[in-house]
Specification:
- The two termini are 59 Å apart.
- This protein is 83% helix and 0% strand.
- Helix 2 (10-90) runs antiparallel to helix 4 (114-122) and helix 5 packs antiparallel against helix 7 (192-240).
- The chain has 241 residues and is mainly alpha-helical.
Length: 241
């Protein structure tokens, strides 16, 4: 009874605004603390995202340079193969070493995927807020690069099973492989059968090289596209930090 009178009396009513004010201060303090903690976490996430994207862009720059170099080499191989094909037709086949190299050399590409493996294994790939960019990065590393690796492996198998033994039996490979040195071996192509064999091997080399060039060109285009989107995302993050 005494407690009821206390809360309903004039004294309690007099201090009621103070009690309400204190409750509001506590509520506001908790709210601000929660908001500040969320803001701090969001900022840290953006900083981590920017770090990962910067490293990914650096890795892609390395891959772009490597792939561009391999593309140039493959296009030069195509030129040599066409020259070899022409030499067969004209009968000028005294020195073919620098042409034959294109039949036994295969493109190589080892992507720099160190940062991608880090964010994939730690789960921090989820820090990339742009869903489209995140999907593009995963597609590049897990699909496009995988297709390129598969294509290169097929080329290796084709060279080993079709052209390597032929080159060993008909050319001095120690001189063929060393760039700038022509083979001293002369290839006897007087026989139509010999011509046909070499022509078939050239056709195979041109076909596999052409397919690989297209695959590399697609990969290089995708790299540049992803790199551009990473740069755009980094610009947005910079404006928000």
């Amino acid at each position: 009874m005494r407690i009821y009178r206390y809360f309903t009396g004039t004294t309690a009513l007099r201090y009621l605004p103070i009690y309400i004010g204190e409750l509001l201060i506590i509520f506001l303090g908790i709210t601000l603390s929660w908001w500040f903690e969320e803001w701090r976490q969001d900022k840290q996430d953006l900083q981590r995202e920017a770090l990962h994207l910067t490293n990914l862009r650096s890795n892609l720059d390395t891959d772009s340079l490597t792939m561009s170099g391999e593309l140039a080499d493959m296009k030069e191989s195509m030129r040599r193969l066409k020259a070899l094909e022409k030499a067969i037709e004209t009968g000028k086949t005294d020195s073919l070493g620098h042409y034959i190299r294109s039949m036994i050399m295969v493109a190589e590409f080892h992507p720099n995927d160190s940062e991608f493996e880090v964010i994939k294994s730690t789960g921090e790939i989820g820090l990339i807020e742009d869903d489209t960019l995140r999907r593009d990065i995963m597609t590049l590393y897990e699909v496009i690069y995988g297709q390129i690796a598969f294509r290169i492996e097929l080329n290796h198998q084709a060279v080993i099973s079709n052209n390597w033994e032929y080159a060993v039996n008909n050319f001095d490979l120690n001189k063929v492989i060393r760039s700038g040195h022509e083979s001293e071996m002369k290839l006897d192509l007087k026989s139509p059968e010999r011509k046909m064999i070499l022509r078939n091997k050239i056709d195979l080399s041109m076909l596999t090289t052409m397919v690989t060039i297209r695959r590399f060109e697609d990969g290089l285009s995708k790299i540049r596209q992803v790199r551009s989107r990473i740069s755009n995302r980094l610009a947005i993050i910079e404006s928000e930090l």
